[in-house]
Amino acid sequence: MHGTDAAILEAGWGGGAAPFGASWQKTMMWIFIVTDALLFSGLLCGYAFLRGASTVPWPRQPEVFSIPFIALMTFILITSSVFMAIAVTAAKLGDGKKALLNLILTIVGGAAFLACQAIEWSHFIADGARLTHNPWGPPQFSQAFFILTGFHGSHVLSGLVILIVTAIRTGLGKTPPQGIEMAGLYWHFVDLVWVFIFTLFYLL
Amino acid sequence: MSEAAHGKSPYRAYWISWAILLTITVGMLLAESLHMPRLVLVLFLLSFMMVKAVMIGANFMHLRYEKRNLGFMVAAGILVTSLILYAFVSQESAHVLSHTVR
């Protein structure tokens, strides 16, 4: 290998055995997160298109949703994210019991969020919202709601499955700290996506 | 991580981030009810949405402890692609709207 090739591999952008100075697991997780973020980016841009092209005035969200209830969902998700971050750090510090306890608290938070989402969907559907029409005017409004929150909810659900498996394996002493860190990255990503949905769909 | 070495709880930073994130969320909800001009409200909400996203990425996802090029790959990859997509989509929606109204 030429000296210049070795210098390129050692450089920040060079790759080598550990591109970005991270393990392959973490690098692959981040690449997955970027691609999944682009899925939500596409959905949110689709929502922007539907709203921008709508000839009927877009409904005012506080007249349709209970914004304090949505704020409660945000509170639950952010708090579960803190428990997840604590679990990751505790696992790295070798405190398996604290890691497991915080993983369980994260799961409780995620389950509470999903329960809130089920309540919200039930009210929305009971008010007459369907994929093709809704009582507030533009049909795109309920379409965007079901697709955005549905995709996010499915991510929360899969995150919960990952967390439950991770918690069981942590209890059995089979999950290394890095396994908890990977589950944590996914969970924080789910929280991150909600920040955008909360602002762009419910507040703007 | 260095906080543990200084005798502080290694979890303190997470609770501080949590408090800031919740304060920002409450601030965004209050801004909604203040009936400020639409453009100001949009800028306010988008700015603080980005602050929250950066805080979650940096503090919870530990990007602040990773090499900078990883954070750059994530932020630039998502932001630039999204902005390009939005630039095309917003023009297209305006075009569709003008044709529909006509």
Distance between the termini of chain B: 61 Å
Low-confidence stretches of chain A: none
Shape of chain A: flat
Report the β-strand fraction of chain A as a percent range: under 5%
Summarize the largest interface: chains and residue counts.
A-B, 54 and 50 residues
Helix content of chain B: over 70%
Instruction: Count every helix of chain A, treating DSSP H or I runs of 4 or more residues as helices.
Output: 7
Topology pattern of chain A, helix = H, strand = E:
HHHHHHH
- Main β sheet profile of chain B: none
* Largest beta-sheet details of chain A: none
Helical/strand content category of chain B: mainly alpha
General form of chain B? flat
Class based on secondary structure composition and strand pairing of chain A? mainly alpha
Helices of chain B, by number, come to 4
* Order of H and E elements of chain B: HHHH
Model description:
- The complex is a heterodimer of chains A (204) and B (102).
- With 204 residues, chain A is mainly alpha-helical.
- Helices cover 77% and strands 0% of the residues of chain A.
- Chain A is built from 7 helices and no strands.
- Chain A has helices at 3-10, 24-52, 61-64, 67-92, 96-126, 139-171, 177-203.
- In chain A, 39% of the residues are buried.
- By secondary structure, chain B is mostly helical.
- Chain B has helices at residues 2-5, 12-33, 38-60, 68-101.
- The mean pLDDT of chain B is 89.
- At the A-B interface, helix 2, helix 4 and helix 7 of A face helix 2, helix 3 and helix 4 of B.
